[in-house]
Design goal:
The chain is built from seven helices and eight strands, in the order βαββαββαββαβααα. It is of the alpha+beta class. Helix 1 packs antiparallel against helix 2 (about 50-60). It is globular, with a radius of gyration of 20 Å.
Length: about 250
């Protein structure tokens, strides 16, 4: 078995989920499941980010003109069902299902039509970039897939192939673009401000609301950035990488 990894980068206005993620660099969407048949597609996505971004993502998923993964821009007449399965201050889990019409197409449908059955899909979204991993057979016709995908995508997104290798279950799509463990700039800035203003002192010299006011960001956004940064630092400390906060890694 091999894994094919590539990225679609949507143009502005072509995908409402990508438009929301572009406005919130610290947010991301990861697929928990993605299944396709010749007649339909259903998937479950988990989004993480500030509360206001999740609200915007929920609205984007519920948009009557949005069908998860559909590449048709002018309306395909499909019937779509969207349901929120879980919602918290920093997590949103959404189920979507749609029946295919003669005009509908999607990445999984193009893969099914050109690569055959027995495929496994994994996706990760941040900003306008939608990364795909497809696990497929060794003899699957990759060139045929990319030719068909390019035709269907048209001008709504750019396509970049990242790799075609043997399956590596330990490799994550999340680090596909840069491969390092550096904190995103927003999380680094939040963490440095928290340290500078005594948020981590005992007792604390400033509370979260006061710090958010000083930084002129919503309290929920600051809370999310700090929790994500703390989680990354804890994981990295256990793995033995002490260079995460060095200027060279940003």
């Amino acid at each position: 078995m091999r894994e094919l990894v590539f990225t679609l980068e949507y143009e502005p206005g072509m995908n409402p989920v990508a438009d929301v993620l572009e406005e919130s660099p610290e947010a991301s969407v990861r697929s928990l499941a993605c299944h396709v048949t010749p007649e339909s597609l259903w998937r479950v996505d988990r989004a993480q980010g500030p509360e206001e971004t999740l609200a915007a993502l929920e609205a984007a998923y519920a948009d009557s003109g949005f069908f998860a993964d559909c590449l048709v821009r002018d309306g395909c007449g499909a019937a779509c069902e969207t349901q929120v399965l879980d919602r918290s201050s920093d997590t949103l889990v959404v189920y979507t299902y749609w029946d295919r019409t003669a005009d509908c197409t999607s990445v999984p449908h193009v893969a099914l039509d050109t690569l055959g059955r027995g495929l496994l899909f994994e996706t990760y979204r941040e900003g306008r970039r939608h990364r795909w991993r497809i696990v497929l057979s060794d003899d699957a016709p990759i060139h045929r897939f990319f030719e068909a995908l390019g035709t269907e995508v048209g001008e709504c997104a750019g396509i970049e192939m990242l790799r075609l290798t043997d399956v590596d279950p330990n490799r994550s799509l999340e680090g596909e673009t840069d491969g390092d463990t550096a904190l995103p700039p927003e999380q680094r800035a939040a963490l440095e401000a928290a340290v500078d203003h005594g948020y981590y002192e005992t007792p604390r010299a400033i509370d979260l609301s006061e710090l958010a006011a000083r930084l002129e960001v919503p309290r929920s956004t600051l809370s999310y950035r700090l929790r994500r940064a703390e989680a990354t630092l804890a994981t990295t400390a256990v793995s033995g990488d002490s260079a995460i906060l060095s200027p060279e890694s940003v």
